[in-house]
């Protein structure tokens, strides 16, 4: 069974984390979850008071961000990779500069040092030069920056369809099972 770390930062886009967890669960992937304090607040604001509890019910383990002794803080603990959905610019900057100051950024740093997939669903617009440079830095380190941009050519009918497609693309980038995202058919 594959294990994946799902990180959730406080940027807008809680439904992206929800949809990543649902997609990973459908594949039978064991999920280790770590949420920043602002992620919990954003979940409640965007999806309702019970949304984070529903997400937590889909995971094997939930780690607190201050638990730097958690298994996912070590490269010797085998996981297939990590998705951070959504990824705030603060979290991106910390990863880009090696600031492993909480479990979310430490687990991301572990993926990079172990050469495992790290998928960042970065959320901000417009982007500053600092954001762009941080995106370049993490890309040079081996991460994949996947801004949650809709695939308009698929003619989505709802925000939910858009989020599910973006989550599926992130999961596909981990290469842990059959393709989940709807492909362009020409």
TrEMBL record:
Annotated organism of origin: Celeribacter neptunius
Residues at which dimethylallyl phosphate binds: 153, 169
Catalytic activity: dimethylallyl phosphate + FMNH2 = prenylated FMNH2 + phosphate
Molecular function terms, GO-annotated: flavin prenyltransferase activity
Domain of life of the organism encoding this protein: Bacteria
UniProt: FMN binding residues: 10-12, 36, 88-91, 123
Protein task: Flavin prenyltransferase that catalyzes the synthesis of the prenylated FMN cofactor (prenyl-FMN) for 4-hydroxy-3-polyprenylbenzoic acid decarboxylase UbiD. The prenyltransferase is metal-independent and links a dimethylallyl moiety from dimethylallyl monophosphate (DMAP) to the flavin N5 and C6 atoms of FMN.
Entry keywords, A to Z: Flavoprotein, FMN, Prenyltransferase, Transferase
SUPFAM superfamilies: Homo-oligomeric flavin-containing Cys decarboxylases, HFCD (SSF52507)
The protein's enzyme class: transferase
Name the UniProt record assigns to this protein: Flavin prenyltransferase UbiX
InterPro entries reported for this sequence: Flavin_trans-like, Flavoprotein, UbiX-like
Domain Flavoprotein: 3-169
EC number: 2.5.1.129
Database matches in HAMAP family: ubiX_pad (MF_01984)
